[in-house]
Amino acid sequence: MTYQEKKSIVSLFSAIFIFISFCFYMYPLFPEDASESPETLRYWGFFVLCLTVVSIIAHIVISIIFNILFKITTKEKVPTFADELDKLIDLKANRISFFVFILGFITAMGVLMLDQSLPLMFIILIISGFTSDVIGSLSKLYYYRRGV
Which pTM does this prediction carry? Predict the structure, then answer.
């Protein structure tokens, strides 16, 4: 397995772990009144912002730990450059990931247009962000294994 494949697998599992852990952490903080009260909307806004910050920080820390462990276990240098294939795979995976998120965003806005609840819009946005992260990692792994 190449460095890029291992990095994609670690990114996939870390995204799943971060999301599930954060959801278990935030679930007890959910307001008792599940209506569209300001407290509930504040909760969902806090959820989205904190998940974004926690996810970015956790991905950076996990990436640093992965690079250290990779260097220790394989005694190889961590690649410091990306060739054309790496760049092409990143571009294709990012395109797929952005497409999934935009679909979720449009769905969330459609939910608002159909007069559904605001918490449902936040849930759709959160799930589309998580799904786009997972699908981006899966597509990178797929392209590294099968080729472009």
Answer: 0.85
